[in-house]
Amino acid sequence: MSGGVREAGAGPGSTVAKVNPQTVIREVRVARRPQGMVQAEDFVLAEAAPLPPLGDGQVQVALRSVGMNAGMADRMRERPNSGHPAMALGHVPRSDAVLEVVESRSDEFAPGDLAVRSWSPWREADVVDAGELRRIPAERADLPLENHLTVLGHVGFTAWVGMVHVGQVRETDTVYVSGAAGGVGSCAVQFAAARGARVIGSAGSPEKVALLKELGADAAIDHHDGPAVELLRAAAPDGIDLFFDNVGGDQLEAALDTLRLRGRAVLCGAVSQYGREGAGPRNYLRMIYQELTLRGFTVTEHEDLRPAFESEAAQLVRGGRLHSVHTVLNGFDRVPEAFCTLLTGGSRGRMIVAA
Ligand SMILES: NC(=O)c1ccc[n+]([C@@H]2O[C@H](COP(=O)([O-])OP(=O)(O)OC[C@H]3O[C@@H](n4cnc5c(N)ncnc54)[C@H](OP(=O)(O)O)[C@@H]3O)[C@@H](O)[C@H]2O)c1
């Protein structure tokens, strides 16, 4: 299958020169708190401070491509119950990125090397401690760059931790994935299918429903087609064993109504609730009657699992059983647009901006 949607123009493959001290480096900052849905105007493109001189063990990097994360929509707002402060106004958001080393004072990296940084500021160039970078290994250098932000990167790792480690997916399971055609969801569907489970996915358009079937889902639902619980019951008349939730709200309630005795739910995200009070599920008593287990997770707490994930994911990629699904917009100035498009369902798979 072909997983990528890419615009014409410069992108991965173009070369990057060392940043001239006179060159303007741009960054994206949070400009205001979102009111309702996040808008591109909630961000501002600004000139970054000049880069500091390189210290020992540091490298200067140029941004090649950066992934967008839906969860950031939540962190832009005041969230009294989250345990984390909201992003300050003027803050430069961070997400995972592929970077090219352009100058090095580290024995680990030389100019031209490509590396992934988990939490890279939305900035065209930066000075970074070499220890923050994960080199793209030589044996994976032939793979398209997007793979390092999708199936082998942050969203793939999130899906694997949730589906395999937390959810303990089994061959005999019927699995339901909400937000299944997104960055995390498209990987979660494929990990469950690769383990032999029966997979049902939900997404927001007929094109995404078709994509889910290409990815190995046995059934797929367009969540616009009716009440979530009716659509899920029709797709899984005998119920589900495992729910991987990216969406929350009515998707979570539908899954609670459909999970079989001792079913499990993995709470990965709740994109439908970001910017709202995030009310709990109306039917939570089903947890008692059906002895259900709901377990949330935060991928950053599971860094120790990365080698096991990379080993399995790389094998699946090489075996043609795990495909990168991504939408690429070209141009660093399009980061705000890319982020808002992701939230409103305008992307397939991971939304990536090529600088
Ligand atoms: N727990 C963790 O450590 C962790 C780490 C990373 C991400 N996450 C979570 O994983 C989830 C997916 O993140 P992502 O970055 O890969 O985003 P994504 O799934 O690529 O993008 C979000 C998608 O959600 C769907 N959506 C938006 N509003 C919806 C609604 N009201 N009802 C149903 N679907 C809706 C849209 O697709 P459609 O067209 O299908 O509607 C949209 O494209 C998020 O909840 C995020 O917070 C959790």
Structure description:
This protein is of the alpha/beta class. It has two domains: 4-145 and 326-354, Medium-chain alcohol dehydrogenases, catalytic domain (Quinone Oxidoreductase, Chain A, domain 1), CATH 3.90.180; 154-300, NAD(P)-binding Rossmann-like Domain (Rossmann fold). Helices cover 23% and strands 26% of the residues. It contains nine helices and 16 strands. The protein has helices at residues 72-75, 154-166, 183-194, 206-214, 228-235, 250-258, 286-289, 306-318, 335-343; strands at 4-6, 26-30, 43-47, 58-67, 94-104, 114-121, 125-129, 133-135, 174-177, 198-203, 219-222, 240-245, 259-267, 293-296, 326-330, 350-354. The strands form three sheets. Strands 1, 4, 5, 6, 7, 8, 15 and 16 form an eight-stranded mixed β-sheet that branches. It has a six-stranded parallel β-sheet with strand order 11-10-9-12-13-14, sandwiched between helices. A two-stranded antiparallel sheet has the order 2-3. The longest helix is centred in the middle third of the chain and has 13 residues, at 154-166. It is globular and about 65 Å long. It starts with a strand and ends with a strand. The structure holds NADP nicotinamide-adenine-dinucleotide phosphate. NADP nicotinamide-adenine-dinucleotide phosphate is lined by residues 69-71, 155, 158, 179, 181-185, 203-205, 208, 223, 246-247, 268-272, 297-299, 342, 345, 347. NADP nicotinamide-adenine-dinucleotide phosphate binds at residues 69-71, 155, 158, 179, 181-185, 203-205, 208, 223, 246-247, 268-272, 297-299, 342, 345, 347.
